[in-house]
Specification:
alpha+beta; five-stranded antiparallel beta sheet; 19 helices; globular
Length: about 500
C-alpha cells in the first residue's frame, strides 16, 4: 500500500509529530508586542549578548539528533549562573512562557523542540567544574560541562566518570534523560551515579534534591527527589548543577572481539559471563547486518556474523582471570575468531566497528537519514526479541542494523530511511511501535536509554499503566502548575 504524506498523516497522526524532517509552523508564538517586552526583561538579566532572536540560532536550538521535526523557540537565552536561570524563569513564569532547557542537542527523541513556542534556556555558558573531592570520589559540575570535558579535567587525578552514551553529551542533559551506554553493565546508568541536583523550578525557585551541598554515597532521608528529576527530560525543572560519583581509573584494560553462529549463542555467552561473576565493563552486540556495514565502511574484515565486543578492567592478575573465563565460556557457545588487545591503539582498532556503527549504517543508503530507536528486555528474552525484530525488518523491507548493550538487555535498531518516501516513513513508524510493544510483551521497556520525548508518550502509558501515569501527571502539576516546563514531552 502506497500512501501520500497527507494520507499517512490522517491515518497515523503521530507521523506529523514524530517522523518529519522539515521546519513546520507551530501553533503558538509570542505576540510581537509581548516579545519586545519580554526580550527587554531578558536582556536586563543576561545582557544583549545573552539573548538571541536569530532564525539560525533558534532553529539550532529547536532540534536534536532525532528525526523529529525542528520546532524553534521564539527566543534563546544564554544564562551564566543559577541566579540568572532563576531570574529568567521568574520572567517566563510571570508571562506564562514555556521553558525548554538545552544542553548539547544530542538527544534522540525530540526533547528540545519548542512545541508551544517559548524560550530556550541554552546552558552552554555554564561550563565550570565546581567541586572536586578526589578522596571522596565525587564532583559537582554545571550543566554546560560535557562528559569528555569532565574526563579531560580529571585526567591527572586517576579518576574518571564512566557513563558513556556515545555522544559527547552534557552531564546535566545526561541526567535529564537518564542516559546510560556501553559501560553501564559494570558502572550503572545516570540513575546510580547522580548524588545530588540543583534545580530551578518553573517559578524560579532553586532547590537541592538531596540538600544543599550534600554528597553522601547513600541516604535514607526522605523521598528520592534526585531520581525524580533524573529522567524528567526538562519537564519538571532546569538542572543547573549535578553532583556525580567518580571511579578510579582501572590499572589495565583488555578488549576482545568474538563471532558467534547465532544471536542465541552470543546472548547465552553474555548471560554465562555475568552469572560467573566476571566484572566485565562492556559487552556490546552487533548483528550480521551491522558487522557487514562496519566492514564496508571501516575497511575491516570481521566475519559477517553475530558478534560480541567485550572490555575488561582491572589489575593484570584479575584481567588474566577474566579473559580466561570469558574465552572458555564463549568457546562453549560456539564463539570463534577471537581477537584480543591490551594496548590502547590495538583496542581502538578492535572497537572501531562499534564506534563507527552509526556512520556505517548511514553509508548503507547514501543520501538517507538515520533514526535510532531502542528497547530493553530481560536478558532471557533478548534472543527471541532480536530474532523476531530481524524477521520483522526483512518482512517489511526495512534497513535497520542492530547494535546493543546486551549486558543490560538493551539494543538499538539504526533505521535508515528516505524521509521523502511517505510509504517508507509509515513502515518505519509502524515497525518502531511493533518493536516497543514486543519489548513490553516480555516485561521490558519501550526505551532503555533514549527517553520518551515526543515519540513514545503513548507507549509510556501502556508501559506504566493509567494510574502510575496519573501520579506522574500529579507530580508535574504540583511542580509546574502552569505547564511551562518543556510542554508536550513525556506525558
Amino acid at each position: 500500500m502506497t500512501l501520500t504524506l497527507r494520507q499517512s498523516k490522517r491515518l497515523y497522526p503521530a507521523l506529523s509529530k514524530c517522523l518529519q524532517f522539515s521546519v513546520l509552523k507551530r501553533p503558538y508564538a509570542i505576540r510581537s508586542s509581548a516579545l519586545k517586552q519580554v526580550v527587554f526583561a531578558f536582556r536586563s538579566v543576561v545582557g544583549d549578548e545573552g539573548v538571541s532572536l536569530g532564525q539560525a540560532v533558534r532553529e539550532q536550538h529547536g532540534r536534536d539528533e532525532s528525526v523529529h521535526k525542528c520546532q524553534p523557540p521564539d527566543v534563546v537565552v544564554f544564562p551564566r549562573s543559577v541566579e540568572e536561570v532563576s531570574a529568567l524563569a521568574k520572567i517566563c513564569h510571570h508571562h506564562r512562557l514555556p521553558i525548554i532547557p538545552y544542553g548539547t542537542g544530542t538527544g534522540l527523541e525530540g526533547g528540545v523542540g519548542a512545541m508551544k513556542g517559548g524560550v530556550c534556556f541554552s546552558l552552554r555558558m555554564m561550563d565550570q567544574v565546581l567541586d572536586l573531592h578526589e578522596e571522596d570520589f565525587d564532583v559537582a559540575v554545571e550543566p554546560g560541562v560535557t562528559r569528555k570535558a569532565l574526563n579531560s579535567y580529571l585526567r591527572q587525578t586517576g579518576l574518571w566518570f564512566p557513563v558513556d552514551p556515545g555522544a559527547d553529551a552534557s552531564l546535566c542533559g545526561m541526567a535529564a534523560t537518564s542516559a546510560s551506554g556501553t559501560n553501564a553493565v559494570r558502572y550503572g546508568t545516570m540513575r546510580e551515579n547522580v548524588l545530588n541536583l540543583e534545580v530551578v523550578l518553573a517559578d524560579g525557585t532553586i532547590i537541592h534534591t538531596a540538600g544543599k551541598g550534600r554528597r553522601a554515597r547513600k541516604t535514607s532521608a526522605g523521598y528520592n527527589l534526585t531520581n525524580l528529576f533524573v529522567g524528567s527530560e526538562g519537564t519538571l525543572g532546569v538542572l543547573t548543577k549535578a553532583t556525580l560519583r567518580l571511579y578510579g581509573m582501572p590499572e589495565g584494560v583488555v578488549s576482545a572481539v568474538c563471532s558467534f553462529p547465532s544471536v542465541q549463542a552470543a546472548v547465552d555467552t553474555t548471560v554465562q559471563v555475568l552469572q560467573a561473576g566476571v566484572p566485565i565493563a562492556r559487552i556490546e552486540f552487533l548483528d550480521d547486518v551491522m558487522i557487514d556495514a562496519c566492514n564496508r565502511f571501516s575497511s575491516l574484515a570481521y566475519p559477517v556474523a553475530s558478534t560480541l565486543f567485550l572490555e575488561f578492567h582491572g589489575s593484570s592478575k584479575s584481567l588474566n582471570e577474566q579473559v580466561s573465563i570469558t574465552e572458555e565460556l564463549a568457546k562453549g557457545s560456539g564463539g570463534s575468531d577471537f581477537s584480543w588487545a591490551d594496548d590502547e591503539a590495538k583496542r581502538a582498532h578492535l572497537w572501531k566497528a562499534r564506534h563507527d556503527a552509526w556512520y556505517a549504517a548511514l553509508a548503507l543508503r547514501p543520501g538517507c537519514k538515520a533514526y535510532a530507536t531502542d528497547v530493553c528486555v530481560p536478558l532471557s528474552r533478548l534472543p527471541d526479541v532480536v530474532v523476531e525484530t530481524k524477521e520483522d525488518l526483512i518482512r517489511n523491507g526495512l534497513t535497520g542494523p542492530i547494535a546493543g548493550h546486551v549486558g543490560d538487555g538493551n539494543f538499538h535498531c539504526l533505521m535508515v530511511l528516505d524521509p521523502n518516501d511517505p510509504d517508507e516513513v509509515l513502515r518505519v513508524h509502524q515497525f518502531t511501535e511493533r518493536l516497543a510493544r514486543r519489548a513490553l510483551a516480555v516485561d521490558g521497556t519501550c526505551t532503555g536509554e533514549h527517553g520518551i520525548g515526543l515519540g513514545k508518550r503513548a507507549l509510556l502509558r501502556e508501559e506504566v499503566g493509567t494510574l502510575a501515569l496519573e501520579v506522574m501527571q500529579g507530580l508535574k502539576a504540583t511542580l509546574d502548575p502552569k505547564n511551562l516546563m518543556n510542554p508536550g514531552k513525556v506525558l
